[in-house]
Amino acid sequence: xxxxxxxxxxxxxxxxxxxxxxxxxxxxxxxxxxxxxxxxxxxxxxxxxxxxxxxxxxxxxxxxxxxxxxxxxxxxxxxxxxxxxxxxxxxxxxxxxxxxxxxxxxxxxxxxxxxxxxxxx
Length: 121
Description:
Elements: E1 16-18, E2 21-22, H1 23-46, H2 51-70, E3 72-73, E4 76-77, H3 78-90, H4 100-120
Antiparallel strand pairs: 1-2, 3-4
Helix pairs in contact: 1-2
């Protein structure tokens, strides 16, 4: 018999592409692997940093990219959560509400008052 695991919530479903990884996980995993190898080669061969320190540098650089594909915060992947957090933290936090009908009425009312004043004079 063939069994298929069905998630309780349809939004939790992710299509698996290769080796049980989703497309998102493959992209971020590949990017983190590429960054890790490039960072290691650059820091050890070009700058001559020791192997142990070089591995710490690689971990610091690779973890954020790896987290974007695998870690969920509040049912959102890390990259989307960070994007929303940055918009909230550094963007406009107060939104002004303009009621255009009230604005038009007040402009029309002020015109009417001017006409009345002109008439009285």
